[in-house]
Structures
1.
Amino acid sequence: MTDRAFEELQRRCKRLKNKRFLKWFLALVLFAIVVMFVIFNFYIDKPVKKELPIKKVVKPAKPKRVLLKIKKTTQKPIKKKITKKDKYNTIVLNSTIVIPKVTIHQPKTKKLVVKKEIKKVAVMQKEQKQVVDIKVTLLKDEQSLIKDNQEHENFNSTLSLAKYYYKHSKYEKAIYFAKKANRYKPSSFKPWEYYAKSKTKQNKQPEAIEAIKQYLSYFDSDEAMKLLQEIGGKK
Amino acid sequence: MRDFEEAKRLFVDVIDAKFYFDSTSAEVSRYKIENAIKERYAPLIFLIGDPGVGKSYILKLISGELEKQKLSIFIDHPFFDKRDLLKILYEAKDLEFDKTINFNALKEKLLKEYEDDQHTIFIDEAQLLNEDQFELIRILGDTKIFQFVLSMHKEEGCVILEKKHFKSRTKVVVEYGRLHYNEVYRYIQSTLLMKNHSEIALMFSKKDALKITKYCEGNFRTVKKIVFTLLSLLEYAKKNGLKKYSDINSCLLQMSALEIGVIHD
């Protein structure tokens, strides 16, 4: 072994070491990237910014026009505008509630009757105002539930929406949220219950029965049996 | 005293029948071949394995042992003409080989001379034989007078075994495997201790043996080469007072592997 040969071997060995180090380093970096990618894509729950299928708040139905016509306008139209934005700026609610102008036509001949009619109209207007107030309150409830669901999308918040819509006879939405809630906790009967009940309300009892039977094929539940009998009886 | 100069000579790649290393592969192959020769149930015995695993060594060893009992011919180089084989067989029996007689007459005469006894012919590097030579081996094997032990490289051997000469023939195929790192460790230790190089033997750990096996892929010849180079490097380091290389380390092993060309930078 000569000096030159030894030195050459040393140099080659060093070069090989550097190459191996670089290979390992690159492999490690690649591995870290893959791991980070997997963690960010599969393990971290991102806040879902889904736009819920909620239509604009319904305008109150136009009150039936009073048959009688009066030249005088009893009340000025009230305009109320509700605009609300949540922090994600995802749902914007605009509603304009218009209390229609009521014109009463007073016949010239029957004064007493007219008085009675005026009274009737006043009562109707009062009732109408109350309806509007209730709707605004309901709107607030719905908004808070949606907001809650958006911020913390989980079984409870989704089920609450299903319950809310079922109670307020919005069966399509109730079904939608019941299905969504079921995804979080498939073993719970509650989403199935709202689904079945909503279907029943929509006169789709066979679908409701089918759903409960499907649930019963997986889980034993007295509650489900009871509801099945109930819906079956109705059918 | 560490005498690397003397120790490295123990790892020079030569076939020394006096020193037999009983690796598992060697023992298994030896047993199978000896058994096949003894039983004589197959006229053709094939020993296949990667180059440098120790086929030639085991073949020479068996041939040497068999020589004491009966006529055993060891051909360590391939013959170029089929007449050459007949010539070797004639010479082995001290018969005169008449070049003027035609091939078939030579063959008939040879069979008559050999028919009283059974003989084993060992051919090393048999993958170098051509079609005609293989055909002659097959014919001689079919006479049941001659038994052939052919050593071949694994890759070529597998192709040859698939050929029509041998495919349907009764044959014994023995595969010679590679060394395990424990065997490499035992080989280095036993070789050095045999010549009283205990201090050098102690320098080798099982971890080093594992690295050597990894670089050599369990090839016996390459193991010898790498240990030889390693001892040369240690010798150089000792002479030049290089403390960094006074003991076996990964760098020295890598340098040895680079030197013999089993790894590349």
Note: Chain B has two domains: 4-15+179-260, 24-176.
2.
Amino acid sequence: MPNLRTLLILAVLLVLLIAVPPFLGLGWQNALVNVLIASLFALAFNLLIGQAGLLSFGHAAYFGVGAFAALHLMLAVEDGLPFPTPLLPLAGAAAGLLVGLVAGYFATMRSGVYFALVTLAIAELFHSLAPRLEGLFGGESGVSSMRMPWQGFTFGSMIEVYYLTLAWVVICGLGLWAYTRTPFGRLTLALRDNEQRVRFLGYNAHASKVIIFAVSAMFTGVAGALQAISNETANYSLFGSIVSSQVVLQTFVGGATVFFGPVIGATAFALFSFLVSDLTRSWLLYQGLIFVLIMLYAPSGIGGVVHHHIRNRRQLDWARLAGPYLMALAGGLLITGGVVFLVESASVLFGEEYARLRHAAEGGLPAFDLFGAEWSPVSVLTWIIPAALLLGGIAVLIRARREIDTLWARKDPSDDTLAETAPLGGEA
Amino acid sequence: MEFAIISTLNGVTYGLLLFMVSAGLTLIFGMMGVLNFAHASFYMLGAYVAYAVSSIFGFWTGLLVAPIVVGLVGMAVERFLLPRVHAHGHAHELLLTFGLALIIEELIKLFFGDFPVNYQMPGELRFSAFHIFGTDYPFYRLFIGGIAVVMFSALWLLLTRTRTGIVVRAAERLPAMAEALGHNIPLVFMFVFGTGAALAGLAGAVAGAFYPTNPNMGLELGVIVFVVVVVGGLGSLKGSLVASLMIGLFSSFAVGLDWSLANLLGLFGLGDWARSVGGLLTLELSSVSATIPFALMLIILLVRPAGLMGERN
Amino acid sequence: MKRLALLAATSALTLGASALHAEPLKIGIIESLSGAQTSTGRLYANAVSYAVARINEDGGFNGEPVEVIEYDNAGGAPDAATKFRQAVADGVDVIFQGASSAIAGQLTEDVRKHNLRNPGKEVMFINLGGEAMELTGDKCQFYHFRFTTTAPMRVNALVSAMKEAGDLGTKVYSINQNYSWGQDMQAAVETAAAGGDFEIVDEVLHDVNKIQDFAPFVARLKSAAPDTVFTGNWSNDLLLLMKASGDAGLDVTFATAYLDQPGNIANAGETALGHYIANNYDNAATDGEFAEAYKGSTGHYPTFVEGHTVFAVGALQQALGTLDFGGGDIDVTKIALALEDTTYETPVGPISVRKEDHQTIRPVVVSKVVKNAEYPADDTDMGFETVEVVSGETAIYPVQDSCKMVRPGE
């Protein structure tokens, strides 16, 4: 059972999520709705990979199905069906569950890489057939509807949508968490770690996996429905591989081995896209770099790292660790600065506008503007800055890491309960 | 008859191109068990490197340099990146290559822009090989096909007839034993990964001059290549060849066939009913030809996951 | 980085003396600035920025410079919906978007719902490139304006110009992408058959941007032996189709809608010679004054969608010129009403808004690819030569019955 402290933190978080948004601007409310939906999607996705060790590369299918189901119900409500608007996500849940049962039955016949490929193929089938099936998915412009008022709520303003989303995400999040605590949820973990043994114990491994898959698809469907409610439209692009891969990225950056890890990843990515996507053309590159770096240096994700620290908090000499950690942070910032400088100058230097400037300068290399200053591409100084940032950052990081390692090594080894991250996906 | 012959020709040459790209992927998977999501990005990288080099040193130099550069990139990935995540299982390897694919695509956009670049085949290859039923058949299609055939034969001979091939296959089956016999297994794996990447690079360099070279080319071909490799059997070179040809021929013939399920049901007198139902039943084969490969892949995965020619699951 | 500077500038402004300043008109560009359609999205965004800079040179609007904010919809409708809400949060009055009909469909619905719920705080949407017929049909609404052609306009213009030039022939083949735009094109070709005295020998709809090898389609095309091939294909689908037919040595003329997309001519090479295009604007059809002015400011001649995008903003500027909010609140409904009454003179002819469905009545330029063109495309020696500028009255088609527009105050 979770300790009091965790509960307290969650309660404070919930109070903040309830109390703060009315005072935020429309932009932030909108961003928070996206954060919540992405979080639920990632949590539901992680039921498969984090709990059952099944890597799905096609979860967009269930997200999209949930969205379209909710929209069709919304259309029916528009036509007079007396269905309460706040319960619309139930349609997404039902559709997700249903499609999840069928797809899951087939997909879980395979494991490892093959499972990933089956899920990928299923999502691609949806993606390529949806625009052809106009009755269900409304062609490429999709299905569109409007939230209808219910019991005095108009659901016209963003804040109403926000609270509706928050309520559903909290309920579903708790549901998912509770699920992992049930004996069946425990069985899921066992399936991941040693399927053969589970079979020997007399459980039907395939049936169990189908159920997990369907449950994951059901909650994914709720997330899709919530997006449909917030956007009031959906089109076939919801089935696209980008949707499937985003949730994979978010979950692993956040950490698949910790229950709330995916929420961290989803929050980070949704906010990242909210804050950065209009600032630079290269934001997808940064996103990719972050993902690969996390895969390389913190395979258990942000959540995993945090969890590791919390577990060992009593054994660590925090006073002495603070220095090296700050140093590591500084090193990270230096490297980030260097990379951003290089990427942004490359994007200027190889861009169309600069090509025109060069053309005007008759093949010369004129200076370019970046971060409010002017830089000459042939000046050594221009390139010394990012080089110094990068090298300095790397040097600082290496140093900090060495110190951190020594300090960690010094901690009381008796209580290092966290096992190394279990392999995910298993052998093919 | 005319349609059949032309479609067969087109299907075979397109199939051979698919094979060229998928050969590297299946080689890497067969030897190392790594499903390389970045493979199609290597293909794209090959096209762009060839474009950049050929604009200064000419087409043939580009064709030579591209596989070398991409092969080196592949080796670097295998040597420095994959080992870091190896301990966390195949899923993490797959995710890493997936992240790399994102980065490569964005880097290409950063340096070469979003529009297709002007990468063309040289004038001496731009002629028609023969004249058939009133149309010219471009020589370059045969050139692509020819390179694919040479590639297949070379790989086949290398793996089955040479000492190196024996070591590589030993390293795949029993790495520990092969290592005990004094072979440098990490080196072998690096070599295999590099070769696989180089093959993709070569394919990109060859095909990029025929099809447009743009930042989406990896994405567009990527999924189809997965289909080929799965259908043929993950890790089976022969299977890849057969599956490539199958999919090539299929997409070639599907274009001319206005078949739908409704027509099929019409044979049993259910045509009108099917047409009244609409939806899936009235979709014409030619309009969903891009969907069929996925359906095929799904069926193969479920019925015979080892693929047509794969040896094991 | 532009938006960062702009945000900083605006927040400094508002902090400084918010009460003293009038409300600036805010324009939001919700475009595909990342993802597969980035190239086109970028062109729309650049052209809007260029044209707004002209407004600001002329003193802006409502006593303030007009602000432009760019939003990246990542090429997808769901992201566009999010960015629309962000734009509303930023106080945007007019939204511009061009790349993709699906996104235009999403935005026009978003705008409609927003205006229903927020009377007095309306937002209007200027559609620069969403050519799906339903946008001025089923989905037509008062706050949506389409400042581009549609399939029937392009096809009508092509048929009339090609016929006059003697390049149309009597056998026509239609090959299009299987989604609303391609289907609209196919339907438009079918409709035009009677007036153009041609017979449609075969028609094909194929998957959008998924086909790598067009040789099989060319084989089918060849067996139908057409004189002219009508296609609304864009991007790879057009390029691959033309290359494959060129490689097969087919002697057909292509009648296209998007041949001028940058990179197409260079990539297609000599194959492109003699093919037709109908579009909103081409430099060669004008006296060159606008083209030079654009080049003077941006360093290159307007290409692809840039020209007509500038005219859309120009029409808006002209409409704004008839209004005076006295430095107070901006009433978007009044702007929309003024835009309805605007007839804007472009270098290729006048553009006016048809009040019934907010489709613009506009000239269509029909051009042909030639060697040694006046304005070479993609650094080649080839380019477009104007065959005919078909007037708006000739090219326009009847209002669709499905359009039931609710006007403000009704």
Note: Residues 2-149+287-360 of chain C form a domain with the Rossmann fold fold (CATH 3.40.50.2300).
3.
Amino acid sequence: MSVPVLHALRCMGFAEPPRIAGACGAPEAEVESQLIDLAVAGLVTRTPGGFGGWGLTGAGKREDARRVHAEVEAAGARAALTAGYQRFLVLNPELLDLCSAWHLRPGAAGDAGYDARVIGRFADLDRRAAAVCRDLSAALPRFATYRVRLGDALARAQGGEVEHLTDSMTSYHSVWFQWHEDLLCTLGIPR
Amino acid sequence: MHAGDSAVTPVRPLSPDLREPPAVIGAKAHGLAVMMRLALPVPPGFVLGTDACRESLRDGRLPAGFGDALRGLESATGRVLGDAERPLLVSVRSGAAVSMPGMMTTVLDVDRTSVLVDAVRTVFGSWHSPRATTYREIHGIPHDGGTAVIVQAMVSGHRDRHSAAGVAFSRDPRSGAPQPFGEVVFGRSGDAVVSGRAGTLPLAALAERIPGAAEALAAALDRLERHYRDACQVEFTVESGRLWLLQVRPGGYTGRAAVRVAVDLAEEQLIDRDTALDRITPAAVRAARVPRLTGTAVLTRGQGASPGVASGRIAVTADRAAVMAADGPVILVRPHTSPLDMHGLAAAAGVLTVLGGPACHAAVVARSMGRPAVVGAGAVTVDEAAGRIRVGERVLPEGTVITVDGTGGEVVLGHAEATTAEDPHLTRLLEWDRVRRAPPRS
């Protein structure tokens, strides 16, 4: 179920190999080697500096769009993916409400009851999101990575690393945001 | 449609005599009845109580008196649902014991009885929508309450040139200053204002175009404030010059504005100092200490999505923001944000987006990074290819300095002054608190 490096990076923005490897579900060394090949082909580039990282070039975005279109057509998956995307759209405002509820929690220094309620609602949403992700994965197996990554983020938050709800680069919101981008990109829908 | 058993509160017409508590008829209907008792204009209608919701969700039945209430509304308006020439049109709105803004369904322009019955069931059913459930979990509202439903004759904010719709506050919700504040649209329905979709005008536009309605609105806000002993917010529609009030909500001010309202009301002797202190939460005190813009020359406005004030040079792409940030602070201006903008958000001192509301992805990311953000600034267009933005008639090339206030949603040209000193109203409130806590002298 590993995800092509070019497409994973397309949905992430700028990132470094460890995080890309996490999104691809592939070993970091293999991802790095593929990044170099893609760079030689002019599809990705590495921007130095504090806010840099690996990212797609314009040609890389066009090539990814072409590959994804062909992938969806070859799998005959458009109808199933569109249906899954509609169900995703029902859940998306609720996820955003939850993220805001977490950020705007009344006792910033910790109201354990409130925090537990919000995390409980993330878990409830996650169960419904899992069903959507399962159907998307049945149509296009690479979507299964989101189930794994969302589950990891939630488990870490439930274990006390609460920054994995909304505030880390691998947080539940960050992964969800990439899932949203992936659906738009895969179905060729502009944001 | 079946008639319910007599254990359920029957359907009641909206009237000054409707005195059941919000737990029975919902906060919205309760507020409408209050306004009727204050002789303020409320469109005729009727309310199905929260217990009718519970019963409907159990077995699909509607309560006794539904048909009678509908006939009463038809005779009060002189119109009939489904009439071929001038049909009665009604709105069907939710109204729980505790307000849950935007979480449940509203159905407008209902014109037939069968559609009305379906709409009532749909609104009842929206009590259990996942968003509404989440909202109740987060805010500690019990799940077994149910929502009331209010059926009212539609009033049209887009009937003619003397029609309008909007929201109005008895005091400025940004600062708490004791002047009415609001937004109005002409030729469009009120939900365009409530949903934050573009193109609203300040309340002053109502005074220019329909002065009689503006005066009536100002008088209504004053009367409501005296009744509730708190600042109030109303939704209103002006139909052919005539003012109608659709909703009232007392309080709901946050941060600096909440502090100022509480202090001013105590000074005006509408409330005592203990009440003022009890209204202010620790979170409001914290929020009151976040810097705000002090100037008034606003370039444009959106919605505050991540608090704080930031100044910097405009960058119109995330890539440009990352590059320009090496030479000093940058404000990233985007139509909306995607994961591809994350590195630009990280590099920027603040964020301005054209689309989105306070709970959009951009807002979540900006708050997680501690960057002030204004979203939904609908008057802005971003021209990525030309490297510039446009705000109304003004063209601002990349590199132009702007300031954003992520609390109030203001956008100002240049480096703008922000408050850093303690707010004088907060100082006064904290002094009252110190006096209250001090042990009594022997």
Note: Chain A has two domains: 5-68, 76-187.
4.
Amino acid sequence: MCGIVGLFIKNPAMEANLGNWLSDMLIEMTDRGPDSAGIAIYRNPVAANQTKITLLSRDEDIDWKKLGEQLKKDLHAAFEIEPVLNHAIVTTDANADDIKTWLEQNRPEILVNASGKVIEAYKQIGLPENLIERFNVRKMQGTHALGHSRMATESNVTTEHSHPFATGEDLCLVHNGSLSNHNRLRTFLRDQKIKFQTDNDSEVAAGYLTWRLREGDSLEQALEAAMKDLDGFYTFAIGTQDGFAVLRDPIGCKPAVMAETDDWAAMASEFRAIECLPGAESAKIWEPEPSRIYSWQRD
Amino acid sequence: MIEIDLDKVTIREFNQQLHDLNGTDKKEAYKIMNPRGKHSVAVGADAPVDITVEGHVGYYCGGMNKHANIDIKGNAGPGVAENIMSGCVRVQGNTSQYAGATGRGGMLVIEGDASSRCGISMKGVDIVVGGSVDNMSAFMGQAGNLVVCGNAGHALGDSLYEVKIYVQGEVKSLGADCVEKEMTEEHVAKLAELLEKAKINADPRKFRRYGSARKLYNFKIDNARLPE
């Protein structure tokens, strides 16, 4: 089991509520996944020549300022670091791949949670309510967000095994289900120079999409290909720069409910995580069909 | 009429109230407010009570129901009326996966659509769906009737035993060993009776009937094994 939620604000006047509403949704999914929790939120876009990166340190006592100075010196680029406990939001004009390579070589305890223009991602072990309180999620404003509550089945309970998993620029994935061919696929993807930080199956799905998108697929094409190559069962919610997409495996093994009003579109593992949203009583509600891609984006 | 507000009473408390009537012939009427997608609403009833649920429910509503009449004024999550024994569960909206799974008797009426595996392994329940059903419905169905006024998804009636399936609309594909069968006057009469009982308005003559071809392994006498 696991719980996944996604919320997309259609009415810009409602963006201030995003973090608060997503928090209610994710807390409702606590008993589907009390091992760890994570969110990805799309907000505060950086300038066209800049990249925003969410870093996560396995060491809680990290000196982010010192890290920023090191990065500036070695990569000869501007770095603005906003520390958020063991996470940090980095705005830079350096290349994201160069930063990843530098971190691997110099600071392997630091992971890249997400990178792009608008995405930020936070995750840790423990209950959703702890994550929400610790990172002040209720106060976060933005256009859309995903959340995940994990009940670990196939790999360890650690922060880096938590969802969401980044899958390329401004893309991330949360997953309910499990994949059976992830070891073979990980080996194949490593040969394609896709990097993995854990032995988690969902990270392989994220890496697979990263690979397809790098090869020039659209998100829709990448998901069509994923349906052929991923063996197992899954409901995915995938965050994109301007919206989100939902896909269930061809058997429709894992639950999913979707709902939409004039103000928002939402998906969740169960209806009770949508019921808490204002306007849910008059929303259009339906169960997404197996192997059909649903997506929303801003016009 | 006893009103139960699930914002104030826990599911466990309400279900216990129901179970306290089990085995009696008390005809209490309950109105359930604020279900909010909660799981296991009115599970395990065993008395001829009337239960109206004012909203959407989560997993397993009306599971193992015996004698009770349950009317859900909304959608139902996975496993509604799972293993129903008798009585009636009515869903005025849509249902999620495996509605009426393993049901042994009674009736499940879904006025909207049902998703995948509706009536999986049904063993005697009658299921009447006003809308459509999705993939793998009535999989391994052993006894009872599945009536679908709309369309059916892929692999309808896969590995079927003795369930009779009536579909008015399109069937995307039939599952292994499921075939179309002749609709005799006897079947038209039985279907008319089911539709009337379910209070679903449809013309029984517009339906096609599907059932088991009885060609899989278990149907071959040479494969029968007596206990040693």
Note: The first helix of chain A runs from residue 18 to 28.
